[in-house]
Amino acid sequence: MSGVPVAGILSGVIGADAPVRLIAYDGSKAGPDGAEVALRISSPRALARLASAPGSLGLARAYVAGEIEVDGDLHTALSALADVTLHSIPRGRQLRLARQLLPVWLRHRVPPPDLEYRPPGRLHSRARDRRAIAHHYDVSNRFYEWVLGPSMTYTCACFPTADATLEQAQAAKHELVAAKLALKPGMRLLDVGCGWGGMVMHAAAEHGVRALGVTLSRNQAQWAQAEIARRGLGDLAEVRHLDYRDVTEDGFDAVSSIGLTEHIGKAQLPRYFGFLYGKLRPEGRLLNHCITQPRTPLTRRLDPFISRYVFPDGQLEPLGHLVSVMNDAGFEVRHEENLREHYARTLACWGANLEEHWEAAVAEVGPGQARVWRLYMAASRLGFERDNIQLHQVLGVKLGEQGSSGFPLRGW
């Protein structure tokens, strides 16, 4: 590839019309001079990564490793590169790029960054699920406090107004779930995949509900139990480090699953919804809140960057499939709501929090991990904005005798 400008090669990857300035280590440049953002390719290792993984994964590896820098806002850069970041580049172009970069790959090839992770074991076995959850959620509670803010809520918020703060929006989300579940004092709530216990504590503090949360993350459970004690909610709220499948209690008035379904896997969904159905009393309600595909995908593969760096073994399904499986498990579906735009706003807030604490975050988790999070949140925000992914809440009920639902004629 001697004599071929590096910026010209990269221009072929992202598209000649992309509004991004390319500046390469060999002095070559491409793209409009007045572009709002620029990519700086600082090492030939970045090209070697593109040779082995043309498209978004190769670019992500180079960014995580610090071989590509972004001048300007990362979300703006990804928006300009949407054809690469949201959709795979055509196979023919991938093959041409790989052939063109073969010489540089032979000289500068390196293994993927150490942060790339594929958990061992049988897919969605209990042991593998524990490893996958620990990889993402047991990073550092301090790091999550910086990114998520005081609510420590790592799920889509619900913004009551356009100028609402993240904390107001997370409180509104918890209250929305509580309203859909019709929580009242004395009721019993099971929150599966409860994270740091936000919904558990909201149900106890605001509605007098006896709430049990379970999570596979030891860090989350320890933080949540300490916070429950600090707030004086120990008589009503509890978070256990436990697989949801090992909950022995039943007869709950309500079950909330906020951000767990993405980790379950398609083959396990019937058992998952069947298990939650069995935990409810007659007329008990389930609120399932999860990220979904906007339509039935042509391939089952999650984005390779997300699956290898962020959510190992994560699987997203279209809304219709989830509703069908809920129905087949016995639930009557009463309400559905798409909060796609709210998740884009949530991610924008998390991204701003990370930037505010950037130096401390790098010191806490390392530059590579911090870059993973910066890229993941910016890319996910773009995905929700462009309808590449969605966020749905589905409300179901376990009917009582002769089809009784316990629902009013109107409302939730």
From TrEMBL:
The lineage of its organism: Bacteria, Bacillati, Actinomycetota, Actinomycetes, Pseudonocardiales. This is Class I SAM-dependent methyltransferase. InterPro entries: CFA/CMAS, CMAS, SAM-dependent_MTases_sf. One of its GO terms (molecular function) is methyltransferase activity. GO terms for biological process: lipid biosynthetic process; methylation. Belongs to the CFA/CMAS family. It comes from the Bacteria. Keywords: Lipid metabolism, Methyltransferase, S-adenosyl-L-methionine, Transferase. It comes from Pseudonocardia bannensis.
